[in-house]
Amino acid sequence: MKHRFSTVIFRIILFTFISGAAQAAVFNDHMGRKVRVPDHPQRIVTLTPGLTEVIFILGQAHRLKGVTRYSDFPPEAAKLPQVGSYIRPELEKILALRPDICFATKDGNPRIIVSNLEALGIPVYITQPTNLKTVMETIQEIGDILGAEERAEKVVADMRNRIAAVRRRADALDSRPGVFFQIGISPIVSVGTDTFIHELIILAGGRNLAAGPEPYPRFSREQVLGFSPDVLIITSMSRAKGFEKVKAEWSRWKNMPAARNGKLHVVDSDLFDRPTPRLVDALEILFSLIH
């Protein structure tokens, strides 16, 4: 294993040396780092499922040579070679794919992997979208890097138009129902102000009952009942049966408005968790569930 790993490193260094004279462009990533990217990179490795989705929606899947575990959307992504999970990417597997560039994220991907890749001459563009605005900016930036600017502009324009349509509908409403969004089952975990889901709740015309400085606050059942949520939405990384069990448990509390009025819902966590254009799908779904 050690010999094979050394051979892979030698080959990647040789490949980098030979191609080093190729023309490259410089891009500033979300960490403020200057990243030199070869013109027309043809071999891409993404280090999160969300970044995999972005490459696909930009029409650049033919360049994608490796992805992390749970890269399952679109379904074709699951057929690509995997390089470990996004919190534990495997350097040897990444190197074996001879990437021209890797796309990573600040939160989740280990810094040591990024450092090792860069030490071997492989550019790593680090992203850190924190809201819908920066998700759209990230899509445009990746489009610029891959020469898919026109496609990126169309994707972002569609997102903006759909977001604006939901905002108009929400602004026309007289009330803003209280929403408790449960992302963890045991313990009960919700979402604070500095999260994608908080932004979606506000845009969809709701009030986030867990708003506050803690990104992922924990609550007891009694605290949730004390909020008297008008709408209670459940999502988790667990299987669907787990969702339905939690929904059934909440439905027994008929004094809670969400249970009394049939406003207990289960949603697909991938729509709400990943910083991709599908966040707008989540927004539209959320509006329909709240109102």
TrEMBL record:
<feature type="signal peptide">
    <location>
        <begin position="1"/>
        <end position="24"/>
    </location>
</feature>
<protein>
    <submittedName>
        <fullName>Cobalamin-binding protein</fullName>
    </submittedName>
</protein>
<feature type="coiled-coil region">
    <location>
        <begin position="149"/>
        <end position="176"/>
    </location>
</feature>
<dbReference type="InterPro" id="IPR050902">
    <property type="entry name" value="ABC_Transporter_SBP"/>
</dbReference>
<keyword id="KW-0732">Signal</keyword>
<keyword id="KW-0175">Coiled coil</keyword>
<dbReference type="GO" id="GO:0071281">
    <property type="term" value="P:cellular response to iron ion"/>
</dbReference>
<dbReference type="InterPro" id="IPR002491">
    <property type="entry name" value="ABC_transptr_periplasmic_BD"/>
</dbReference>
<dbReference type="Pfam" id="PF01497">
    <property type="entry name" value="Peripla_BP_2"/>
</dbReference>
<feature type="domain" description="Fe/B12 periplasmic-binding">
    <location>
        <begin position="43"/>
        <end position="291"/>
    </location>
</feature>
<dbReference type="InterPro" id="IPR054828">
    <property type="entry name" value="Vit_B12_bind_prot"/>
</dbReference>
